[in-house]
Amino acid sequence: MNDDLKSFIMFTEETDFDPSIRFFATKLYPLKYYELSFIELCCYHGAVNCFKLLRSKFNSQITKGCLQLSFLGGNPEILNECLKYQKPNDECMDFAIASHNIDFVTFLMNEHKLQINLNKCIEYKNLQAFFIYLDQTKDIKNCFVKSTSFNIPSLCAYLLNNGANLKMCDEYFTPFQTAINYDCLEMVEFLIDSGGSIHTVDEYGKSLLHDAAASNSKRIIEFLIAHGLDVNCKDNDGYTPLHQAAEFNCLEATEQLIVHGANINEKCDLGDTALHIAAENDSIEVAEYFVSHGIDIFAKNNEEKDAAYIAAWEFHKEILNNIISYLPNESDKDSYYEIMDRER
């Protein structure tokens, strides 16, 4: 990590040193479920002196992972050496975008004909790469929809003035939904000021308030309710925003919806309350909030199942224990444990 060559040499001279040993990559490193070698770690940390030692003394092989990680490490010597043995791929471009090194991005585009992944520009907030993608592809539609995640109204205004419109959507989301997913309140306000309807719903009947609840966007929930959205509005399946918050364990959204008058016992078309949904999805914090705030724990859905039954059936023990702690009879509690103790 510190490219401490002196200490590393001493380490390599120990009798049990094995240059080929690999380490399981923790969350610190980007390659999930991947084991990293010493030389790959050098590439990631830009430790060029330790890298050279491993190459000269142990002939450590340069892998695809070495090249990919060198785009994150950013050391030109390591990168050039890796390029002698490995050909860049899309993962290299993704890491170049993540590094915010625009020279790496343009190098991969011009020399290796790799395309910029627009989703990675958004994920890593790389505005420069975003503009290069826009310039190269002229993909106004996808750029506009995803641009709302940057929370820069002037950027969206530019795209609107150059062919974009508020009805555009990408494969999954509208501009409103993208802004909400990234908790960009200023963009939601901008889209409304630009003519977007706050009452828009998607093909499933979900309102912007449903989206805000699923994204745990407390500020946006407050804004939408203040501007006229019904806190108990329902989608095509009868789900309210509170059901949506329960599904994704969004506690702040749940609290905000309840404060603004959400019916805690409202049922969807299948007869499920938000507690049923929380029990099914193991939404522990939200389930605890519901129980402590007086939700009807005895409410049954269309299949005559209460939330405790759902929790037991799904083996969600913590939620089950929380719910049945309010039951007066021990025999009732035992019946739920019997459900959970069945053979899986």
TrEMBL record:
Name used for this protein in its record: DUF3447 domain-containing protein
Q: Which residue ranges contain the repeat ANK?
A: 171-203, 204-236, 237-269, 270-302
- Which InterPro entries does the UniProt entry name for this protein? Ankyrin_rpt, Ankyrin_rpt-contain_sf, DUF3447
Tell me which Pfam families the record gives: Ank_2 (PF12796), DUF3447 (PF11929)
Q: Which domain of life is it from?
A: Eukaryota
- Coiled-coil spans are none
Which keywords label this protein?
ANK repeat
Q: Which PROSITE patterns match?
A: ANK_REP_REGION, ANK_REPEAT
Q: Where is the DUF3447 domain?
A: 58-133
Signal peptide feature range: none
Q: Does the keyword Kinase apply?
A: no
